[in-house]
Amino acid sequence: MRRIAPPAALLAVSMLMGWFAYRLGLGSVNRPEPGFFPFWICFGLAATSLYLIWRSPRPNPEDEATAQAVFTLAGYRRVLSVMAGTALFGLLLEVSGFLAATFIFMAFCWLVIDRQSLLRGLLISAVASAAAFALFVKALNVHFPRGLLGF
Amino acid sequence: MPRRSLLFLFVVALICLPVKSAHSAKYPGYPVQFIISFPPGGPGDTTIRIIHPALQKNFGGAIQLVNKPGAGGAIAYTYVKKAKPDGYTILSTMSAPLTVGTALRTLSFGLDDYEYIGAYAFGATGIVSKPDMRWKNLDGLLAYIKKNPGKLNYGTSGAPTAPYLTMAAILAMQGLKATPVHYKGSGPARNAALGGHVDFSAGGFGAMQALIRAGKLVGLAITDNARDPKFPKIPTLKEKGLGRASIGLWAGLWAPKGTPKAVLDKLSAALKKTANDPAVVKKLNKAGFRVEFVDGAGAKKLARQDHETSKEIMKAVGIKKK
Amino acid sequence: MGDLFANLYFGFSVSLAPYNLLACFMGVFVGTAIGVLPGLGPVATMSLLLPITIKMEPTAAIIIMAGVFYGAMYGGSTTSILLNLPGEASSVVTTLDGYQMARQGRAGPALAICAWGSFIAGTLGVLGITLMAPALAEMAVKIGPPELVALLCLSFLLVVQFSGGSRPRAAASALLGFLLSTVGLDPVESTPRYDFGTFTLMDGVGFAPLVIGLFGISEVLINLEKSEKMEVFKGRIKGLWPTRQDWRDSAPAIGRGSVVGFFMGILPGMGTIVPPFLSYSLERRISKKPEKFGTGVIEGVAGPEAANNSATAGSMIPLLTLGIAPSAAVAVLTAAFLTHGVQPGPLLITEHPAIFWGVVTSMYTGNALLLLLNLPLVGMWARLLTVPYRYLWPMILLFCGIGAYSVSNNPVDVLLMAVFGLLGYMMRKLNYPGAPLVLAFVLGRLFEEKVRQSLVISRGSYETFIAHPLALLAWIASAILLLYPFFMRGKSAPHFPPEEEE
């Protein structure tokens, strides 16, 4: 199953993207148009995926060798929530400013995902965001969006 | 949902609540951000960086330069359009995305979405070729194309750029045919002419000056109103009766619509003083720009004019708006 | 030759003046610092430094800026080795073997060999500039679209054979990278593709979000789900310095990497990202134990690190002699020249000899300073790994986010980074290699642009691709590369993993 799913997904992607590319116009081999390259890349990707699907029943020594191949529900939840947190950080940057966004993000990581105790989590979040602010904004002079209070 | 997560969401919501800004009435109370629609080192980036120290002094407040490149300037233009019109977010860029870009494409911003603060640096499109070609000047080149229709290639700084529109317009006005090869920017277009990969190139004149001075390229024509005093031998298109093909390329400052007049005046005055600073003028000249201060109303008129010219050229050449 | 020594003497008299020496130190110091921070690249930092340097003398200002540029290449490898997180785009390859070395407790030797390799390559690169800058620049301009197409094809072939493991999967990964590179305005007619109505995608997928997500974020995710305790580095730190055997393995790799990097750096568009890939595959190809690559061999760290440093030097050549910027970072250097009223180009040597020779000689000094700066740091960095991972990972994520954002100050890039983090995580779990995707992504845009330009220039004739001697040479090399495994199959050739392992 886990050897068929990825190439099947790739096949779907390449067919969808290939269709978009086709609609852009392919032109000819002598005069390629915007859709030409994406279309043939998709074609190649589709062919490779089909080959991988065809090959999938055979065992792959590499897959056998790696222990990390197990998917667990708990692992998934962790992974997805970390990504949600990162995305939240990106969204907050221009809303609440650098310092607040950083603090929220750090607190999210340590309190919600890592489950530190409330006081401890807030404390290290505060220290970490202050350090990041000092390093990036003060020392390296990177310009971030300002939030309230002008940070 | 665990209690902790709920608490967390609550705190987030609290921090993000829009609070009425408590800025003091004095402007500028804290650094003003100038949004640049080019990456560091791009044409509209260099001009503002050259005037930045003097402008800051004349303005009497800190100015931060922030690059928000991407999508032919659309990201920066949209960002400033949506910004609070409090004078703390200013657009600093070249005119092209606004004048040429909106003619070529349907974009989410237009000429009337901004307050015009002023223009200060004027660039030109330059047409160059290698010194050992069969022509020595623009007339020679056009005559050669006439004899060899469709045989020559020319490099451009890109399909949606003013130099391409200018060159295409010249050819269309004379009823000539040559094939455009689009490069990514004036630098690569110039290099293509230098390496002999194309027969001549049209791009930003600033990028070409060093090589013209060194004799590795010959300037055939520029689009500006008058000849460049550093290159008195290069004629303008106007002299050649091709002035209608010229599209202005200038650097200026814009503010979101609705910015208070006092703020605009303060910035405009600082810009005017800076543009008259001889040290600044000298540096901008070296970088390939003519310096002239044009006030907000004048800049708006220039923009309108360039926009109309672009649309005319597109019609004449047969380029469709995307 | 006497002239050269006179010039060098003059140059050193400029660059060793206390003020300029201090500028050089500042430059390389800041460069190392931002190199260590992932995503925060030399381009962003140099543009932030511009307003500060504008009050300085032109020579000192440009010495600082150049210092940041090549200093970043030193620092870039640090997080690649320690956290599998490329600090600079050019250190992607260093993660492959560097991180494995760190996991085996050999972070010290890996970091030290990076510093030495960078120093040797950097110095060789500057020597190259001193000796043959003008001639090489003229040559680089002569390389037109068809020649570049051939060179890119050669590089592509190396990519697919590049990573270990399943070759069909590497091909799928490379094709996906190629497909990603077509997002955005098409390089010739500027027609929007796959932008789905968003402005961010109209300009294509950013390189920083892609690389940070694919490598850095995915590593954090893998570690996070593994266990609650998150012991990433089980081995103890075994020695801080390279052993005699390490040196014997690395020295030739550093030499080859320097040469590859220098010449690739001059070519337009290759920048400093492609040379390390080529150096890595070159080392793998001539190694006696190619199957060991990717498990922590020191040549796989030394060669690519040398390559990216000499590429930096190489990419300075077009700037100093023709005023051409082959990469974004060099474009900022151009801006630095211009803000000081100096026009880089063919006349730079005669009009501003103090600046030209001062900057060139400062690069010798700067490389030496970088070595002195970086070697003592090796111990400190290696100890970083003893910090419990549960305190480390949120900080890593934060730095990644800041890095992705600060490249073009666009918050959407942070979201993209998260998406690529997820993709990288899936690919890692399913044993699809990430490196081919990155290289194909970098080469893809250039490839399409150059193919289409070539065809416009030649009016659709494919003869143009073999009409140039250099292009022909590259095609022949590609053909040999392609047929090589068939010739070698009879003899026991361990260069390729056994076929058909799917």
Describe the structure.
The complex is a heterotrimer of chains A (151), B (322) and C (502). Chain A folds into two domains: 5-69; 73-150, no CATH class. Chain A has five helices and no strands. Chain A has helices spanning 5-24, 36-55, 61-65, 73-113, 118-139. In chain A, helix 4 crosses helix 5. The longest helix of chain A has 41 residues, at 73-113. Chain A is flat. By secondary structure, chain B is an alpha/beta fold. Chain B has two domains: 30-122 and 248-315, D-Maltodextrin-Binding Protein, domain 2; 125-247, Periplasmic binding protein-like II (D-Maltodextrin-Binding Protein, domain 2, 3-Layer(aba) Sandwich). Chain B is 41% helix and 20% strand. In chain B, strands 2-1-3-10-4-11 form a six-stranded mixed sheet, sandwiched between helices. Chain C is built from 20 helices and two strands. Residues 490-502 of chain C have low confidence and may be disordered. In chain C, helix 4 packs across helix 6 and helix 6 (107-142) packs parallel to helix 13. Chain C has one domain (2-488). The radius of gyration of chain C is 22 Å and the shape is globular. With 502 residues, chain C is an all-alpha fold. In chain C, a hairpin with a 6-residue loop joins strand 1 and strand 2. Chain C has helices at residues 2-15, 18-36, 42-53, 58-83, 92-103, 107-142, 145-160, 167-181, 199-202, 207-226, 244-266, 274-286, 299-322, 328-339, 348-351, 353-384, 389-408, 412-429, 435-457, 469-488, and strands at 184-185, 192-193. At the A-C interface, helix 1, helix 2, helix 3, helix 4 and helix 5 of A face helix 3, helix 8, helix 10, helix 17 and helix 18 of C.
Describe what is shown at a glance:
The complex is a heterotrimer of chains A (151), B (322) and C (502). Chain A is mainly α and 151 residues long. Helices cover 72% and strands 0% of the residues of chain A.
Beta-strand content of chain B: 15-25%
- Head-to-tail CA distance between termini of chain C: 59 Å
- Based on Cα principal axes, name the global outline of chain C: globular
Number of strands of chain B: 11
Could you tell me which chain pair has the largest interface and how many residues each side has? A-C, 70 and 72 residues
Keywords:
heterotrimer; B: 322 residues; alpha/beta; D-Maltodextrin-Binding Protein, domain 2; 2 domains; 11 helices; 11 strands; C: mainly alpha; 20 helices; 72% helix
